[in-house]
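thoughts on my protein:
***
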Amino acid sequence: MSERFHPLAKCEECPLRTEGLGYVPSKIPVEGRTRLVVVGEAPGFREAAYKEPFKGPSGQLINHVLRHHGYEREEVLYTNVVSCRPRDNTNPPPTAIDACSGRLMHEIVESGSRDVLALGAFAARSLCEHPGAISSLRIGPPKRPTYRLSGSAVERVVATWHPAYCLRNADSFPSLVSDVEKLTYDSFKEWQAPDWHYFDEVPLALEAIKGLQTYLSWLERPLLVIDIEVGIDKDTSFDHPNNYDLLCIGLGYAKGKVMVLGEEALKDEQVKQALFATLRSAKLVAHNGKFDLAGLYPIFPALSLYADTMLAHYALDERSGGALHGLKMLAVELLGAPQYDDEIKQYTKGGSYANIPRELLYRYNAYDVACTWDLWELFEPQLESEGTWPWTNLPAKKLRDVHDFMVGAANQLMYLELNGIAIDRTYNRELATAYLEKLADIERDIDAIVNEGTDGLIPNINPRSPKQVKAFLETQKVMVESTNADTLERLLGRVDPDIPLGRFLRTMLYHRREQKLYGTYVKGIARRLYRGRVYTTYMLHGTTSGRLASRNPNLQNVVRDKAIRRQFAVSKPGNIFVQADYKQAEGRVICWLARDEYLRSIFMDPTRDLFNELGMNLYGVSELEKEQRIRVKAYFYGLSFGRTAYSIAMEYGFNLRQTEQDLKGFFRLIPAVEAWQNDIRKKVLAGEDLRTPLFGRRRSFPLITDQNKKDVLNEALSYLPQSTASDICLSALVRLRPMLRGLGFIRLTIHDALVVECAEDKVEEVSRLLREVMVGIAADYIDYVPFAVDISTGTSWGDL
């Protein structure tokens, strides 16, 4: 007992007793004043220094949130799952958690508090009745406490993100705030299960569809919520539904009223025809409806969405991430629905919904439909929120406009997903061989450096092994927690690049880059081939910038590497790719937003070269040198990101002092842009949201700290031009795709460019149509400065 820091902690069994960095006792309020228990993971540096939990940045943040909800620090018991600080801030080992659990449970019981706030995964797993991932434990109402707290006053545990996580990932902060707010609720929403019926026999299905048609004909606004089930989960999979058998279709026709058409009924042609007529007569609502319509396309073409609850939630809450906008999460968190997918999980471990017993699957489908109806009922009035603009000639946009725009885009992007883009398989194999040879050469270089740096003590290492990379770094007197690229880059900036350690770091980073390219865009592409094509899934809700994202494979962020892009080829001989690319789209948007007359004068005259004019004015010369033009391009394109002289100099290898002088001179040419950027910074630091004037998208920055302030301001400067330019291009896609019928197919869209495949004899007509529509769309939105479009052609993406 004399060896224990706390009489109920088995310190003699804990590795942190000897390996940790100090004991930090819990902060316990005076007797009778504990209103809340807050449990974290383990003490940090400042906590160990002050000998008090939550004294550092995490403590300041959680204190602020608790005070906002009516809790003072003096009323809160602060503690951690383990009381000793682990070395290097690593996760507390299970043996340490077990050794400290008696102490933790005793303190919670003695506090007499009804509520416990569990911060992070380790606290949540230790304190909740049914442990799980923090991402699932935090949603919905408070959880029941572990059996180890039975007989205590504790009634509920609210699990949420650890404030340290929020400091690293500021977009998680609103969830922390809303989770803590649950402590103030006396009751939570109760969801009413739907009245649902399924029809798997053809006569009964036909009768049900006939009754539905009659009912919809009576309605002024015939809404129909639709949801399909195939072999995969649309919330978590990025595969395409029409690669799988259709298992059922759920139809919601009123609040809490659902009919499900089963697998057998959907095989009948009469049922399909009757259902198609019904679907075409209604306004279709779905959650991630692009998935549902794509799955129905082989039997029900030409359907379109009226509303999408996933996109509605994204319009209301622009944070990125599929889980945040997923149907199950929203149903539990916002509607009070149960975790109704729990009962099917035992059948989907192999990944296929086809293994679920049909009646169970149909009920799950009915619950999806009912939750989607309730979410649309909740979101529709919220979407009426308006923005205000600094220009009186622009009408205020509502978030409903944002939703409707994205739904229109989803209706067209579905066809790009269905068509896919062809891959030159022979070239892919050749590229794979070339990359494997290149990686082998790089690994031999790494071995030679390691051998030299250790005088032969370590002859070689596996560069893919963090343990072996750490071992070599330790021989160079470098101790790191991680060997990720960020860590290696930071180290490289601190050492002589010509010594073995510097050469090792530089070569390792080169290896990482080439390995990632091979794994993602060579081997990964080959793995995703289906009938000679890859089929990306476009995500309208995938970024905070408002730009499109895509998955499986990600074609929005493919490197500008011709060798990689050359794999993407036309689908048959005689066809050509036509790429239409907006010239300096984001720069033109900035010119319009800032009302910069100097930039406008250049853009108004298509005979004037933007970079030559900027460069000649900046350097006072009549003809630019090659490096000067490169510099001017870097400064101009850096406008969209608020790039500093330092970041530009580091990327391009420029002299820092010269770059600083150049950048000052560059902004003297465009003072209106500089003033606009300063205004954006002031608004964001004052807590104002940003709204895109043309499309109404909203971006908020919920947590600004000294650590993330620079990144937040850079993102704020990029948001308006990036989002606006991307939406202009997306508007062009929506208009163009139907116009290209009989001429060609849009194969890709990449932020501010469209790629169309057409026959060789259609190239001129397609090029003309692309230029006319894209320029015209931009002019419809912005008349202050003209937009221009570059056209390029080739038989592969790499040729464009």
User: Anything to note?
Assistant: Residues 709-739 form the longest helix (31 residues). The mean pLDDT is 92. The chain has 29 helices and 21 strands.
